[in-house]
Amino acid sequence: MTFNIYTSEGWDRMFILLVIIIVVVGAGYLGFAFYQRRTIKMATSVYESKKELNKIPLDDEFALAKKMNLTGESKKKYGQLHDKYQHYQNQMLPDIEQQIKTVKADGKGINFIKTRNDWQKANQTIKTADTTLKEIQAGLAQLYDLNKQHQHAVSELEKKYQHLREDILNENASFGPSIDGLEKMLADIEGTFDKFTKLTKSGDPSSADEVLTDLNAATDKLEDYMKRIPKLFASLNKEFKAQLDEIQTGYTELRSKGYQFPNDHFDVELAQLQDQIDNNLDLLTKLKVEDVTAANAKMAAAIDRLYAALDDEFKARPQVEKRTGMLGEYIKHVRRQNDDLAKRLQVLNESYVLNHQEIEDNHQYDRQITGLEREYRRQVDDMNAGEAVYSQINATQKKMMTDLKELENAQKALFSSIIDLPEKEQAAREALRKFDLAMRNKKRRIDNQNLPGLPDSYQNSFASVIREINQLDEDLNKAHVNIDDVSKQVIIIQADMDTLEERTGQMLDNANLAEQTIQYANRYIGSNPEIASASVKAQNYFEKQYDYAKSLKTISEALENQSTGAFSKIKKDYLAAKKSRGNVKPTAEDAENDD
């Protein structure tokens, strides 16, 4: 029974193994068949690429180039291209054929790696051959195109040189001394053109191309000269000469009318410019066109400067003549104003301390005016003597007008700073009178209160204000009053007076309220020990220490503890009565407590 079971399992295993072998063999066969098809396709693609090489008609192009009868460098280049083409036909094409056969043969085997390498090698060889053919074709095209271009250039240059000859002949007067040089230049170019023509006709486009480059450069230079020289010559022969004559005439005429020029070198500069004209004409003879262009530009600038010098003097004179009278009056006005200011300062200096350099500033103004007067007289003398350089005087007078305006403004500012000194003194004296009266009234108010005494701090403040008032009075009665110092004292005293007034009002209010509150509290002395004790303390502060604020605080707090609102009513009635009498306004503390 066991033996049969093992026999059945063995057959099953053999059957499975057989199926696997059949599948593997089938897969291998299918893979090999696919590889062979792919190899055939690769070989076909290589062959098709090789067929594309034959489409380039190099044989025809070589035949066409050969008919050009090339010589010299062109013939040498043709030979190099032909040798490269022979190498392509005799070496590269057979190699490609052999590599295609190798790829096909590889397709019959199973060496996949070798087949792919051979296929890549064949493709690379075809690419190299294709590049070689294109280089050969480009070289032949260049020879052909050069020859064609040169033949066209021969025709065009012949026409151009014919026009150039005609232009030189017809317009020879406009070239001035350059005509011989231009004709020689054209003759040299025509000689180079003959050489270019021979090389072109002989079939050597490569050598002809080198000559053509030089020929075009020389022709462009000649055309450039023919365009620029007439303008340069016209400037030298006509424009500059006419301008120099005009400048000479203008200069002579202005000098005859009394005009002067700063650093007058007109004669020398005109002679130098005339020499430069002759020198530039000589440079034109030698065709030094760039040198003449630069020299002409410098001459034009020099001529413009001479024109500007004439124009400056011509325009400046009427301006100076118009301004001179007005300037003289302006100087006189500023002089009179400064003299008046000096007199006023002298008077004020007898009564006041001038501590802002007013007198020194006035002296400085005087020195500046003296300098302006001296310069003005010199200008007038030069004009009367016919030696005036009007452009320089014009510039100087403009600055003088500015200086005079600044001086006038400074004088006005100085005048404004001193004109009100007497008014300020009077204002200070009026303030002193008011301060004195206010302090007397304040003392009378205090005396009317019949207070037992005054706190030391208050007496010190009162005495301090009195000292300040006395000092102000002393300073105002000095021989020389320092208005700045006095004005500052007035400001300080007013501030201290305001403070003292506030303290006075507060002290009197505290004293009156303390006295009324003590009197009101007396009704509770027999029944309330706390009020009795507070009343004794409050009277001691009031009569012995003169501390009315502390006296009021002591008795008012005790009274409020006994009868809430009692003190508030006393205070309210006091302020109402005070207001109805028209006494001084309540203090800030009163207003706050009242709220």
Automatic annotation (TrEMBL):
Main site of residence?
A: membrane
Membrane-spanning parts = 14-35
Chain ranges on the Extracellular side, renumbered to this chain: 1-15
Record topology, Cytoplasmic segments: 36-595
Could you tell me the membrane topology recorded for this protein?
Single-pass membrane protein
Question: Which Gene Ontology terms describe the biological processes this protein takes part in?
Answer: division septum assembly; septin ring assembly
Question: What Pfam family does this protein match (any one)?
Answer: EzrA
Look up the domain of life of the source. Bacteria
InterPro entries per UniProt: EzrA
GO CC annotation terms, alphabetical: plasma membrane; septin ring
* Coiled-coil spans in chain: 140-174, 208-290, 469-503
Subcellular location(s): the record lists:
Cell membrane
Annotated keywords: Cell cycle, Cell division, Cell membrane, Coiled coil, Membrane, Septation, Transmembrane, Transmembrane helix
- Family assignment? Belongs to the EzrA family.
Q: Which NCBIfam families match?
A: PRK04778.1-3
Function, as annotated: Negative regulator of FtsZ ring formation; modulates the frequency and position of FtsZ ring formation. Inhibits FtsZ ring formation at polar sites. Interacts either with FtsZ or with one of its binding partners to promote depolymerization.
User: Per its record, how is this protein called by name?
Assistant: Septation ring formation regulator EzrA
What organism does the record attribute this protein to?
Answer: Lentilactobacillus farraginis DSM 18382 = JCM 14108
